[in-house]
Amino acid sequence: MMNVKLLSLLIVAVVGPFLTLGDEMNQIDVEKLRQHLPANLQNLSMPNLDDIESALKEKCVKAGGSEASYEQIKQGAKDLANCVKGLVDVDQFRREVEEAKPTGDLDTVFNKYCRKRNTLLECVNTFSNTIDPCLDEDEERHKSYGVDVFKNLLNFVCHKDGDQIALFIAEKGPECFLEQKDDLIKCVNDTFSGYLTDVDLSVTTVPKLVIGPKQCEDFTKLQNCLVRELEQCEESTPANLVESLFRFVRKGSPCDPKGKSGRR
Fold it and tell me: Is 43 within the bounds of a domain?
């Protein structure tokens, strides 16, 4: 079961390299983020970065890799971040979306960015291959599920070159999310706060990164809760698209009820 220690490790391991790319990335308001956590978790602090690095290196060596393998992963994460930044300038993307709303040209904007998805997938696959030396057999298999989930998510967003996400925005999807923001956050907290029962943030070992039946059940629980809250909005499109997104993302994963891996 994923606990606070694992969550903290994942946050630092994945986000850390991105934070080294520019000072503007370090201006995240941590206190505002804490306000959305369950009450018993708002006073938690992150473990020491040096301890995290030491634990991750040790895990890498135990899996058959080396400290050099871990350094390659860090560099691979930076390369992936640079790849993403090179494909999408977030500020420019936002401006283009706002300019396209009044004219109904959102599909043109998303067509432009969705045409870059193959390049993004190549970058993700390259990074994915980089972490293999630090994973055991079970983790490597589940890592491939994670990559597949990302591909499914990207394919869903870029279906017909972005028509679905353009429809989501045109049908007041962002407004719906803002309207139901507190209830949506509660869905996430109610679903995953049960994982965060271990408040000992000392870092000695790194738990295995795998997906089991419990995680799949909670994935469905989160889906149902989010859709139920979004159905309170004036337009039905946001709820329908989110429900379709969850079904699409789980295809081929251990949580796919139609696949062998999804059966209990």
Answer: no
Asked whether the beta carbons of 241 and 173 are under 8 A apart, the reply is yes
Is residue 87 situated within a structural domain? yes
Q: How far is CA 137 from the centre of its chain?
A: 23
User: Beta strands of 154-201 (E only): which ranges?
Assistant: none
Q: Which residues contact 181 (CB under 8 A, 6 or more apart)?
A: none
Do the domain assignments include residue 199? yes
Task: Write out pLDDT tens, residues 28-48.
Answer: 455 555 555 555 555 555 556
Higher per-residue pLDDT: 163 or 195:
163
Q: At what angle do helices 237-249 and 137-157 cross, to 10 degrees?
A: 150
pTM of the prediction? Answer: 0.68
> Going by C-beta distance under 8 Å and a sequence separation of 6 or more, which residues neighbour residue 94?
none
Per the listing, tokens 């986000």 go with 15
120 is in which domain, residue-wise?
4-21+49-262
Record the tokens describing residue 197, joined without a space.
Answer: 């029962």
Asked whether the predicted pLDDT for residue 205 surpasses 80, the reply is no
Residue 36 domain-assigned? no
Query: Does residue 178 register a pLDDT over 80?
Result: yes
Question: What are the DSSP E strand ranges found in the chain?
Answer: none
Residue 240's CB: how many other CB atoms inside 10 A? Answer: 16
Q: Which residue has the higher pLDDT, 9 or 253?
A: 253
Looking at the structure of the chain, the number of domains it has is 1
| Tokens (6 digits) for 24 | 């503007």
